[in-house]
Amino acid sequence: MEAVVSGERDERLAALGFDVRRQQLAREYKRRRLALTLVRIVVYVLLSAWFLGGFTFTVKAWASAFGGGVPQYAVYAVFAYVLYWLPAIPLGVLGGYVLERRYGMSVQGVRSWLGDAAKGLAIGLGFSVLAVVVLYALLAAVPGYWWLAAWVLGMAAGAVLTWLGPVVLAPLFYKFEPLADEALAARLQALADRAGTRVVGVYRMLASAKTTRATGGLSGIGRTRRIVLSDTLLSRYTADEVETVIAHELAHHVHRDVLRLMAASAVASLVGLLAVDRALRAGVPALGLGGIDDIAGLPLLGLTAAAVSVVLAPVVNGLSRRWEARADAFAVAMTGNRAAFAATMVKIHDQNLGVADPSRLAEFLFHDHPSGRRRVESALR
User: Fold this and answer.
1) What is the rounded CA–CA span in Å between residue 365 and residue 105?
2) What is the pTM of this model?
3) How far apart are CA 278 and CA 272, in angstroms?
4) Dihedral sign, CA of 190, 235, 25, 120?
5) How does pLDDT run across 127-156, given as a tens digit for each residue?
């Protein structure tokens, strides 16, 4: 029965222009990535259980040697980050390097990959320590409504990072240059003008030294908003196809989907913080914490936040799929080129090993875009 269903799926995809072999590889690739993700979750839960079983107080004692308050919060965060990170190293190598190379998604050498991994580790550690210090300072200073203060600060920090991302964070991993194709740059700039969206320029991202994936879109907000096209996109797609990609991205700004997604994420964050507040208060007697601001409760905080995120992800993904479908329709209407949009969806799913026809359950749980098959069918209708 499974073979029959798979065969029917492949026939549908082939009729729309998808490469059946690439789609079979995509399903295999996604299954292996999902397996690694599940292993990561199990490792994270087991480590958290070990911490909350008493080891967290040992780490707290280590951190206490550097003083109380902020120094203790920071040192505990560093210890915890490293201890959680060490078991994840083999999984990171398997998922981030071996699997990507095996399926042709990465062409990055070991030295370059290790360099990016080190940058990611440093950035992650820095942001994590800062977040822990701020959260626990708030827990100590305003225990009654720390969650509200943390929520406001978190939203502000997210906006700042979105603004700074294209000019500070992204250049740490990729090189960018103004698009040399003046005709295409002018065409995309005119498209943005027609959509009423201000962009500061059109840039080429030199991605081919690391990946075979094709990407294109808008990055940043306000005065840092720009159109970014990977060289892997520019080398394989026609000007009409590139235009449909950017028209889709512009639709999100026209429809204020960026703000909608931020609002949905803000609601999810608020729910998560309230759940953390309840968990910490329950953990005081259950775990022997000295109060909700006891740094030994950090693993409980992280575990609760992660659980809420997993539960709410399908809801946020469902909203995102609706907005993405509307952006597809906008792109087709704005460019007047159904064939180019459909061809782009086919090519980009095959190139990036995106599963074009996932099961309904997989789409509901994991996908923030409609399936590639339905996007093509909608465009052609």
Assistant:
1) 24
2) 0.88
3) 10
4) negative
5) 999 999 999 999 999 999 999 999 999 999
Task: Check: CB of residue 24 under 8 Å from CB of residue 31.
Answer: no
Instruction: Quickly state the pLDDT bin for 3 (edges 50, 70, 90).
Output: low
Q: Examine the pLDDT at 294 and tell me if it is beyond 70.
A: yes
3-state SS string for 240-270? HHHHHHHHHHHHHHHCCHHHHHHHHHHHHHH
Do 179 and 229 meet the contact criterion of CB atoms below 8 Å apart?
Answer: yes
Residue 69 per-residue DSSP state: S
CA distance linking residue 32 with residue 4, whole number of Å: 22
Question: Using one digit for the tens of pLDDT, what is the confidence trace for 239-289?
Answer: 999 999 999 999 998 888 888 888 888 899 999 999 999 999 999 999 999
Buried b (16+ CB within 10 A) or exposed e, 289-301: beebbbbbbbbbb
Q: What secondary structure does DSSP assign to 284-313, as a single string?
A: HHHHT-SSTT-GGGHHHHHHHHHHHHHHHH
The amino acid occupying position 90 is P
